[in-house]
């Protein structure tokens, strides 16, 4: 029984780790290589699913011997402890609960001891969300390989997809790289490029890149498991490094003094998809609602979908928000205009800009100073 597994998972299963590891022996008595998978959110669960399906093939050279993920977290109104998406997927697939490890930190002695008992020959990480110490990295003889959703050395860090969209990139991708102690700095085994359109949002792009990463991983696994990948892996060019630090809640507010294109790019990385942030409010903005008596009141909205216009010639002054077509027209910096197509008021459902505008009943809408 894994000492770092939560009581809920420990109660669900009583299989012995050694017998589960032995179950994947191939035909003719040839043992498959043990892989340990580390990941937490839904995008990582899709990678685990790919590995589990591939491992079930009769000619597969590997088996998933253990899964490592973040501990259960309190979710929903009842604040009930719920397993991560990766843990839930593993449980749904009938994976032994005592081989689902959930350490608070990957350097815990009990966890490292349990990991050594599994005898992993390779570890694979995908959005795990925990720093791996050198004592961990020293365990698997074929190393630890990470699926990172950027074209390394670009966007090293916790929020590569969100930061890339914020910067308005036209191309990004996914990299398969060896893990070293420096953040996302290991040699790159392979990468795959992906063209970005201006309307794609972070959750969609994350899913696409991890799907590409899963296919890239399966393609490269034979060379990783025979050791030849280490010879062909290319060191990263440190002179080209860019960073993608974790997002914080202050970044959710839009400032209409900036150009509309910049705000649209910021909106396309809705940060509630960031697995390390809980309760992220989305992209928010403040407007002024002026009633028939001329009395202003602050109105907070959550911005759901937007477009960017280079010019904003429909506004009568620099502050008034108008409606045209199906969008609110909010004047921004550089004479540009942000078109808000969908929005959400506090405690309300998502609505179209047209329905919101009709509900104003003649009240005036201004940019918040």
TrEMBL record:
Name any one GO molecular function: methionyl-tRNA formyltransferase activity
Q: Which residues does the UniProt record annotate as the domain Formyl transferase C-terminal?
A: 247-360
Q: Which InterPro entries match?
A: Fmt (IPR005794), Formyl_trans_C (IPR005793), Formyl_transf_N (IPR002376), Formyl_transf_N_sf (IPR036477), Formyl_transferase-like_C_sf (IPR011034), Met-tRNA-FMT_C (IPR044135), Met-tRNA-FMT_N (IPR041711)
Entry keyword set:
Protein biosynthesis, Transferase
* GO cellular component terms attached to this protein's record: mitochondrion
Q: Which residues form the Formyl transferase N-terminal domain?
A: 34-205
Report the SUPFAM superfamilies cross-referenced here. FMT C-terminal domain-like, Formyltransferase
Q: Which Enzyme Commission number(s) are listed?
A: 2.1.2.9
Entry similarity comment: Belongs to the Fmt family.
This one is known as Methionyl-tRNA formyltransferase, mitochondrial
